[in-house]
Amino acid sequence: MSTNTESHADAYADGFWEAAEGGTLVMQHCLSCDALQLYPRRRCVTCGSSSLDYVPASGRGTLYTFSVILRNPPSDFTEELPYALAVVRLDEGPKLLTRVVDTDLETLECDTPVRCVFVRRDGKPLPCFVPIEDQA
Ligand SMILES: [Zn+2]
Predict the structure, then answer these.
(1) How far is the CA of 9 from the centre of ligand 1 (A)?
(2) Distance in Å, CA 96 to ligand 1 centroid
(3) CB 135 within 8 A of CB 106
């Protein structure tokens, strides 16, 4: 194995990215207080412990809130307009700032059931969400 000092600062997030590469969304689980959190952090936001491991999430949740971005100043994201910036509440509890993709943005509503899909950006698989089609 090579030693890459550049990625060392983010080593605590390695488990997240490794699971994402395999198509699985994982949450950080605190071994001290049992709290779940996402995105990966160095410490538990509930109790401050640094004893954290990763547990798989169902990948399902609901749209907690969102904003459809129609314009923004020149940036890396200009070509992607319009897009939906969203907070998804996973079925397991943690909330995640993300994007809703592959859907008609005009029909989005809060509380819509969504599931995780990974969208590759700059070589990294980023967790995004798509609405779950009505089974009815
Ligand atoms: Zn904790």
Answers:
(1) 21
(2) 18
(3) no
